[in-house]
Structure formats: structure tokens, C-alpha cells
Amino acid sequence: MRIPSRFRSLLCGILCSTLSADEALSKTQILDVLVVQNIVTELRTAQKQFMPDAASPLFPRPFITAAYAQSVDGKLAAYNGKEEVETTSNFPLSGSDSLLLTHAIRASHDGVLIGGKTLSIDNPRLTNRLWDHDSLKLHAQPTSIVLDTHLNNIQSLGDSMRLKHPIICCSKEAASSCKELPSSVVLLPCRCSKNGQIDLGDMLHKLYIGYGIKSLMIEGGPTLLKSFLDDQLVDCLCITIAPKFLGSGIGVSTNKGYHLPVSTTNFYIVGKDCCMISVIR
After folding, report:
1. pLDDT (tens digit, 9 = 90+) per residue, 217-249?
2. What CATH number was assigned to the domain covering residues 5-280?
3. Which residues are in the Bacterial bifunctional deaminase-reductase C-terminal domain (predicted)?
4. Strands (E), 116-203
């Protein structure tokens, strides 16, 4: 059953006027689950219709979804009094309903990618612990992937790292000189570009061919998201907008503006947040 997001507020109002508070809360939570299911269905459809350019040097590569939460003024994280960026784990932007969406999106992809700095600051698990629906079950977990060019961030965490059996994408030099890493870590040496950073095309190709990663969720942080947008490697944008203003902080931008060849854009209300899904062709 597909419920257009524009009808959600109307339905919630009807429920709240005819049911007790507890009953209305239960029903609105069901509506949120239905909205998340709609988003997941849209993502899965886009993945199935994905046709990468066979003539591209990046062929084959995974379907890429950039998924992140931001404030109304476009910030992903705030600065604290010491001019240091606070992470969203310490300063949550989106609500609990959007957290359910994050877990559902993770479950909809073969892999979830974060940058090394996000790993060292947030030490996330990158697992699906909340979404258990239809073919996307809790036991089917995405592969955790980290882009840590010089392996500095993962080495700083050591045994405290919470990721289970992650793939760490690094430079060939870092892989050859690395001596101590948790036994569960898989290193994926990648070619570097002229600026010394990992060549994203080479990394994506190796993830697809060597590890069967046919769909990839980019969860952050801002620098990694910017790199994928700069290289125009994003096939779907999933942006959750929270009703908050952060003022000074850090957002996602590109080195130069360009037009996104969007085929569809839909907006969904998830709890108190607004989620935009744009499929790029």
C-alpha cells in the first residue's frame, strides 16, 4: 500500500482526532514505516534500472547513493566553542524516525562507505539494527567499507573499532608498509590520483569486481560526499532535512556548480523531517 507523503499529515490529523493518544501514536508510527517502505522501494527500483555506461573507464561500477542528513541551512555538523566540528552522533540532526530510514537505506545496499575521519570520530557500526521488512531482513547486513588513504584513522582506533570485518580502501604504499591492524580487517590497496588521494574510479571498480558490491551507500563525512559529487559519481541523492538551523558549521558543496540530470525527485515526510530522493540519470 503506497501512501503519498502529502497525505500523511492529513491522515495523522484524522487519526489523532478519532483515537486515544496511545492509539494515535501507534498508527502514526505505522505510517512512518509505510513512508520508509516507499523510499526503500524507490531506491530498489532505481538500482534495478541502473545502466552504467559500458564505454566508461569506470565500467562496471556500483550504483551510488549519497545519503545524509542536514539542517535547513545546509549544515551536516556544527562547530563547538573551540571551532572544532561536532559530529552528528554528539549533535543529532534528524529524529528517531529518520534513524529508521538510515538503517533501511543501509539494508538496501551491498555496502556502506564512510571516510577515515568519520570512522575515527564517530566509530560507527554501519549495521542495520532497526529495519526488518519483507526481503530486507536484519540478518542481511551490508559490508562496511572505509576510505582511509594512509590508514592513520583506523590505526588510531585499534581494537576499539566497532566495525565488523570491514574493507579498508587505502593507498598501495600504506598497505605495503602497514604492520598492525585488527585481524578482521580486509585491506584493499587502490591507485592514487595526482593529488595523492584514492582514485575513486579504481576503488569502485575493485569493490564491484572483487567483492560483489553492486550498490553502495555513501554515508559521510562531508569531505567524502564532496569527492563523489565533484567526480559526478552519484546516482541517487537521499537527503534528510531536519527543522533546525546550525549557523556556522560544515556542509557539502562542490568545487564548481553543475546541473544534475535528475530523472525523478520525490519528497517524503518522515517524522518531523523531510526526505528528498532524487534519481540521477
Report:
1. 999 899 999 999 999 999 999 999 999 998 888
2. 3.40.430.10
3. 62-249
4. 143-147, 167-171, 186-190
Instruction: State which amino acid sits at residue 142.
Output: P
Q: Where are the chain's structural domains? A: 5-280
Distances in Å between the Cα of 262 and the Cα atoms of 9, 211, 214, 234, 277 are 27, 29, 21, 11, 10
8 Å CB contact between 104 and 131: yes
Q: Return d(Cα 249, Cα 243) in angstroms, integer.
A: 16
User: Is residue 17 scored above 60 in pLDDT?
Assistant: no
Supply 161's cell numbers: 573499532
Give the closest residue to 145 by CA, choosing from 104, 187, 114.
Answer: 114
- If residue 265 lies in a helix (H) or strand (E), which one and from where to where? strand 262-270
Distance CA 23, CA 30 (A): 11
| Residue 145 and residue 167 in contact, taking contact as beta carbons nearer than 8 Å | yes
Amino acid at 228: F
Phi, psi of 84 (to 5 degrees): -110, 145
